[in-house]
Amino acid sequence: MEGGEEMQGAVGLRCTWDILPPTGTQSKWVRLNVGGTVFLTTRQTLCREQKSFLCRLCQGEELQSDRDETGAYLIDRDPTYFGPILNFLRHGKLVLDKDMAEEGVLEEAEFYNIGPLIRIIKDRLEEKNYTVTQVPPKHVYRVLQCQEEELTQMVSTMSDGWRFEQLVNIGSSYNYGNEDQTEFLCVVSKELYNSPSGLSSEPSHKAKVRP
């Protein structure tokens, strides 16, 4: 591709790099001391994204940075998340260890102003959030025991998403004066959606209560 390189990005996205630096600077190596960890790379790699902090730093554009005793640029950032950022500039793919938080890499990508990487991580996070919201709801059932005269009040006061499912007549268990009090089992249900932590806001077991 004339005027730049095209790399295959993560999650099906393609990353097109800006124009490379002049030929005379492509072979020069750069040392970066990020939070006490030294990284060695080339100006060509750092300038793949020409609007980034890293490109401007190694080109000496408007940025003043201290150097350590070896001449490496000192950058006061977390080195844990810098490795994936540097590798992204090298080959255009986001590769993370299974225990590494994408949010941490996103924070650093925004600091270094690496636009293509920011978009890729945000797309991945949005896809994860969408997947969580698509988890089918769980149905929780409760069995409430009540007398005939309590039915109307109980059904009318149901709230918080509970709905009536079934009414079972279990006969007369009590006698007050000359009248038998018929007992009912009222089955109610509620839909519960999983939270991002995988826990429901209500227990999944049946409960039998008497108002």
UniProtKB/TrEMBL annotation:
<dbReference type="Pfam" id="PF02214">
    <property type="entry name" value="BTB_2"/>
</dbReference>
<protein>
    <submittedName>
        <fullName>BTB/POZ domain-containing protein KCTD17</fullName>
    </submittedName>
</protein>
<dbReference type="GO" id="GO:0051260">
    <property type="term" value="P:protein homooligomerization"/>
</dbReference>
<dbReference type="GO" id="GO:0005737">
    <property type="term" value="C:cytoplasm"/>
</dbReference>
<dbReference type="GO" id="GO:0045724">
    <property type="term" value="P:positive regulation of cilium assembly"/>
</dbReference>
<dbReference type="GO" id="GO:0097602">
    <property type="term" value="F:cullin family protein binding"/>
</dbReference>
<dbReference type="GO" id="GO:0031463">
    <property type="term" value="C:Cul3-RING ubiquitin ligase complex"/>
</dbReference>
<dbReference type="InterPro" id="IPR000210">
    <property type="entry name" value="BTB/POZ_dom"/>
</dbReference>
<dbReference type="GO" id="GO:0043161">
    <property type="term" value="P:proteasome-mediated ubiquitin-dependent protein catabolic process"/>
</dbReference>
<dbReference type="InterPro" id="IPR011333">
    <property type="entry name" value="SKP1/BTB/POZ_sf"/>
</dbReference>
<feature type="domain" description="BTB">
    <location>
        <begin position="28"/>
        <end position="129"/>
    </location>
</feature>
<dbReference type="InterPro" id="IPR003131">
    <property type="entry name" value="T1-type_BTB"/>
</dbReference>
